[in-house]
Amino acid sequence: MPSLPENGPNGRYGDDMQDRAPLAAFALMRVLLGLMWIYEGIRGAPWSVPSWVAGILLLIGLFTSLAATLGVIITLTVLANSHSPAAWGAWPWIYWLIILMQILVAATAAGRVFGIDSILARKRPRWPLW
What we know:
Layout: H1 20-43, H2 48-60, H3 64-81, H4 93-107, H5 116-123
Helix pairs in contact: 1-2, 1-4, 2-3, 3-4
């Protein structure tokens, strides 16, 4: 039976991509959340300035954890200002899904894949903001 090629840093195939696949999924989630917040800013919502900030930071992958936390705060503010669950619209669960997605992006190193945080992490690996 043929064996797998041994091209990883430890002599095993695929070691160089060991932790990148889950982070790539969270990086895609980060980009989608960034686009969503930029769209909310374009719509002219009352929270447009924080949504622009969160959207741009998430889109470029800079201070990803802080931007996702800002997104959670914005979403919770929207929920608090909607006085009744009937005012949330036809899909009230979507707010909780958005909050969960932002918590996942904030808790993982989603900015270290295809983001400016990855460049900064190489220069300052002990920087506490990612």
